[in-house]
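Q: My collaborator sent me two sequences in one message, no labels, and asked for predicted structures for both. Can we handle them in order? The first one she listed is below.
A: Yes, handling them in the order given. First sequence, followed by its structure tokens:
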Amino acid sequence: TIGEQPACTGWEPRLPRLLDRAEADAIVVIAGVDELGERQIDREWRSLGDPLYDGWLAGELEAMADTLAEPGVPVLWATVPHTRMPGPDGDWTRLPDNDPARADRLNELIHDTVDGRDGFQVIDLVAAMQELPRGGEFSPNAREEGRTLSPGGAENLAGWLVPQVLEAAGASGSDSGSDSDSGSGG
């Protein structure tokens, strides 16, 4: 059994209907940092790197990819940058979610999910975050609380992301090329 939060499961049944209504020219998937945390599986708390957790999450990613797959609609799936969220005492090094190995493992699972799927591509959000001005991915100019993009960080990353979305949408045969929708899972 897997412990699930209602906030994380409530969007899943609605996703196909949302996609149908959106008539998207392209889909962007950016994972939330919650996947870097722990989940209760078989009454034990587990995280990325644990074979049971990895197997469960790989299945979830595959199911999402199956839902998102639609001929002619490209899916751009972003890698997950390392985090420095404050721990209970404010020290980011004491929060296990910040272990770089967790983000690295999630990125491996993302690559495994996307590789070989027609119309899917991995976009390197990790590299884009490292290139942000004034300190890169961990700069206070880029993120708030080590996890959420600041307004400046979001603006910089939009400048990196939008051309990729437009290129992918144009390559898909879309005649508008300018209307792009993005999605994010919890």
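Q: And the one she listed second?
A: Here it is, processed independently of the first:
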Amino acid sequence: IEAYQERLLDRLCGKKRKPNRIYRRAGSGRRLKTIVTTLGVVRFRTLKVKNHATGETLTPILDTLDIRGRKYTRQVKAQCAELTSKLSYGDTREEYHRLTGLRIPKSTIHGFTRELAPGMLNANLNATTPSHPQRLVILADGTEVRSIQRGEFNQVRVAIGVDGGSKQ
């Protein structure tokens, strides 16, 4: 990432002997950026660029990678939100840790789900078929209950939806 950042800044600011008149590297301090990807935690140093025409300071690598103001990539968010459609937040945390080795807090996974749920709901509503008509889900939840006979735990999942104006 840092090597790509150098090439990006050379294109924007020009080489040392032939500098660009609009963009110039801003400051000598490098800030450490940490992002969580599906491959693991990535840390790299970021460099800033100043637009002398507007006075605006930019960090081009963050804009190029589309991670400005984010710690988690969109792919990580989508995977966690997808898992919460089948599992509880705690189970999603454990399953995602088992699959990728990354520990993401339950509250963060809840935030991902709240952020992405409207888009996922629209995609689900648009993917209806004649055998599976469109139903608006109001509330979905799940829990574990102990079986009386063997002492085992069973998963109970409940969805409340609207079908023709009545709740089911």
